[in-house]
Amino acid sequence: MKNSNRFVLILILGLLSAIGPFSIDMYLPGFPAIANSLHTSVDAVSYSLSSFFVGICLGQILIGPLLDRFGRKRPLVIGLIVYLFASIGCALSTSIEMLIVFRLFQALGGCVSMVAPRAIVRDLFPVEENAKVLSLLILVLGVSPILAPTVGSLVIAHWGWSWVFVLLAVVTLAILIALILWLPESKQPDPTFSLRPKPILASFTTVIKDKQFFTYAFSGGIGSAGLFAYLAGSPFVFMKYYTVTEQQYGWIFALIAAGLISSSQLNNLLLRYYSSEQLMKWSLVVQVTVGILLFAGAAAGLLGLVSTIFLMFLFLSCQGLIFPNSAALSMAPFTKEAGSASALMGAIQMGLGSLASAVIGLLNAQTPTPLAGVMAVCATIGLVVLLFGRRKMDSAATTTDIKEQTLDMIEKY
């Protein structure tokens, strides 16, 4: 593949992947404004975030088989059109219930932008390059948590929260045009791929029964649930508990996101010396340690604004190493079922993220302690799943069943 074509491809895939995070991050500074406008509470507004996560989770399960049956491009186009109309619906919402419903449909349409890029990477690049390419996607993807809250806070301050969703629609329209013009079809439609429930369930069953997929998808998914807890709980922690302004929150969010972006690019360098599994395991170890310090400090009342930002920066920086390596390890065993595997992995991640964000809403926290506790628990369970699953793989001699090309990702040559 020519370098120019590679650049354009990775840029488009990165922009597609950014639609989901933009949909989450851009409206976070507007939680208080949305609550005031719709005559509800900030906790109630957080359910619009949970409904988005639920839609992403369910939508990925539906879109995976469609990507394997109709190719990658057609479902992408249709999904983004649905997203456009749902975004306009969000902008026109006059009640919190209306916003929650349109956020669900926005997620159902937009979920294809999260599933398809991983499948396209698996289609077009050698398996041993997948973690590196996914790290490059995170570099493009990483612009969203830096720009989105800041842009969102400026839009909200000048025009109101509903214009955030208008802007999302306009940006997505531009990405849709670029997709139609320049994104190649990486997998031709497969008429033999059945869309009947029984074969689809059989395909998902085959994927989830694969020990390599199960171990890395669930350990990465549970670990990343701490990120979703942070997304749901950080508006309260920073804007209500620490009383920062909407614009200050946007800058804090961008600073913390910069840690995730930097570590994702460090991942490319570290992959020269360490395996994907080694990087994932030690990142989870560090994340658990930081999570415990964050929880203990919050519970003891020892943390101020700066120390809270610092520990959350460290915690989420680990995610830049966990995500690309867990995704690459999960997807490595699959070729024909790459769409289903990507969808199932995304559904696991979003399902667990939805649960974590819902827990944050239900706790109705008055201090940062519950958020810190949920983040620490997610990281700890993720590490336990990884260690236990890897031991099961070893005891069952499953490495003999893993394709030779994936062994280097687990045990560094």
Automatic annotation (TrEMBL):
Keyword Transmembrane: yes
Gene3D superfamilies referenced in this protein's UniProt entry, alphabetically: Multidrug resistance protein D
TM helices/strands, residue ranges: 47-67, 76-94, 100-121, 133-157, 163-183, 213-231, 251-270, 282-303, 309-329, 341-363, 369-388
GO molecular function annotations of the record: sodium:proton antiporter activity; xenobiotic transmembrane transporter activity
UniProt xrefs under PROSITE patterns: MFS, SUGAR_TRANSPORT_1
Domain Major facilitator superfamily (MFS) profile positions: 9-394
Keyword hit for Calcium: no
InterPro entries: Efflux_drug-R_Bcr/CmlA, MFS, MFS_dom, MFS_trans_sf, Sugar_transporter_CS
GO cellular component, one term: plasma membrane
Superkingdom per UniProt: Bacteria
PANTHER family, per database record: MAJOR FACILITATOR SUPERFAMILY (PTHR23502), POLYAMINE TRANSPORTER 2-RELATED (PTHR23502:SF132)
Stated name of the protein: MFS transporter, DHA1 family, bicyclomycin/chloramphenicol resistance protein
Species of the source: Chryseolinea serpens
